[in-house]
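Quick one: structure for this chain?
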Amino acid sequence: MAGLDHLIADDLRRLIFYFLDNELVANALFIAERLTVYEPSADSAHLSSLCLLRLGRLSEAADQSERYGKSGQHLGCAYVFAQCCLGLGQCRDGIQALEQCRSSWVEVNSWGKHSESNRQILPNAASIYCLLGKLFEGCDDVKSAVECYSNGLKLNAFMWDAFTRLCDIGVAINTSNIFKVSPNLLVPTSEPFCSRSYDSENSGYPLQAENRPSQTRFVGLPNADPFGTSTRHNLQVSQPSRRVLRPAQIARDTTSKSKGKKRIATVAKRIRAPEVSSEVETQILRGSGTQTPEYTLPSVASLATRSRASRTEPSSIRSERRTFVQGGDAQYTTKAESSVSIPDEHQYPTIVAGHKRTPSGRLIQNQTQEFVRDQVGARKSVRQMNRTYAVRTPDPKTGRTERERGVPTNSKVKNPATNKAPTTTLLGDRSTDHKAFSPEFQSSQTNNTFSLTLERRQALESLLSLFKQLGESYYLSTHHQTPLALHILTSLPITHQQTPYVLSHTALAHFELADYTTAALTFSTLRKHSPHQTQHMDIYSTCLWHLRRPIDLTLLSYELSELSRHTPETWCAIGNSFSLDRDHSNAGKCFKRATQLNPKFAYGYTLEGHEYIAHEEFELAIQAFRKAVVVRKRHYNAWYGLGIAFLRLGKFACAEAYFRRAARIKPRCEVLVGGVGMALEAQRNFPAALNHYTAAANLAPKSIAPRERKVRLLLQMNDIKAAASELEVLRGLAPQRGFVYVLLGRMYALDGDKEMAVRSFGRAMGLCPERGKAITEEMAALIEGIEDEDSDVEML
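Got it. Here's what it folds into:
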């Protein structure tokens, strides 16, 4: 029964891979629970916890992986456990789990080992460093988080998540030192489409089982158990890789109706398979055998060429390429296959012994060195083994068929000069093609290899150049150099500019520059390209709020609520719609709902705080703003809100501190610099306040608010001449704003010009009739004050 349980576990494992690959995670979880019954091991616990994690059941996944993960016994369990700890807020436990198994992942690099048919289910060092950075960030250990993110980017420059988090933290980054070709990215990506069998210390197996197991077979080599628990150093060869890796002959399917295949199968039944010693086997698999250079791994170019040729070649032609070799042990072989075969006609998956690896999961260095050193020899041998000839196709020049020209048939031949064994073929005598062994041929193959390496490097450089542009724009945006970031985004190729990511960040850049009209237009374009996107729609709704477009804002809120009522951006849009209608109570409830859906949503807390300020509930506003800065320490909007709240409460020193904190984050924002001026003005520090108002006006020459505050302060300081100069500029910026003429009336009244003062106040009442009473009272008080001063002068 033990053997039967083992086979059942194999089938269950393949089913799990199948369901995970097809996003049928619930089915995979059901099968994984059955697997834990037949094979209660760390491997089974990892698969089960992985399914729970993908279903979002974090607590259950943590319980399932804690036994082998928290202590670091199993890398997969430790990684799943750490991810669960990150989601559950137990970051210390996640850090401990990953640190316990550091030796098993710190040197693992899986660059180039992921494709459609080859997966690594266990993480590598770059991904674990990124997860560690998030865990340290959750523990407020920013220094360790920055170190982990940096290590992850050194190993894999495409780790975009690590880069963006470094930018959000506020680290000074030179993107040229990150997005560049490094030795980690230049490792060979031509590894055959095979994967290591699952190992509790070091393993990676494909997420999908064999697509066509009926077309593969077992090769009778020692320790060739794909999922066994006793032997974990195996190499599973999937069906697409049968033309790529030939350490032992993989017998072809004999179920075809091709006549050539039937004839060859008849001959193959009379041939016995020779046994292979473990020493020879190791040489074959590692590609280091001195007598069989044919087993050296081929290069990428040859793999791609052979894959295309194999897909397009008729099966009848492939069957005619089989030959019969005499001399020594008779055996059945083909030109595209090696000399060791098992002519068993049963349909089994092909499993051969795997590469030697260290406990940390790295390949033994000799293999990589010999792969690079023997590339020329490998390409030569693979080309010889994979020469294809059309059957009975005469040459247009000589009239001879390819079968008459002949090809080399002995796959054990290392050099034509040393081949003394007589050979015969099923298709007749053939002469050896010495062209493949000529120096010119080898030189051309070497040039092709160098050309491929050069093309690979050029492709990486082009891709990294694109990432550098995107990364530079993101870095500049997070460090509030928005004009430069916008310039980079608009200089991208037009095809990239039309992607949702670039469109959304272009709109955000315009929003940061207070160009709300252009930002709204860009957001509208984004909605056309990606109508179901909810990310950044909270900023879009705020943009419409600033533009005072209630109809557009209501329509956006309705569309988002129809699309998804469980996203915080939807409730922010609804809250902004209520706020524009001056329904601050319902607006605050909507913002609170947004933060309930996502407690890490800092912008929702900020909007909630501003609504509390509109209600004059300053204590609640302070609580909301503080929650926002806990989530995002560099969220300058929340720091500014805290300054406003304390300013209203009369705590001017605290308000100044919060305004300065916000201004340090975004030093070129006129609103934040003006906030510092307001706090200084409240403390009667008029010269310092005037300097900040002047700086704010210089940062944004077309901004009205800093100039208005500057004029009010100048009038309070009785500096009529400077106030008149600023009022001329202000009247040019806002000719239809009533407050401008109120300030003009005050200036004329202080200057003693009653006629111009009355005329200015009258113009203000015409522009702002709703404030007519307040303007009349101010005008009367100023004129009365002037008359009192005149009477005092006459008495003197």
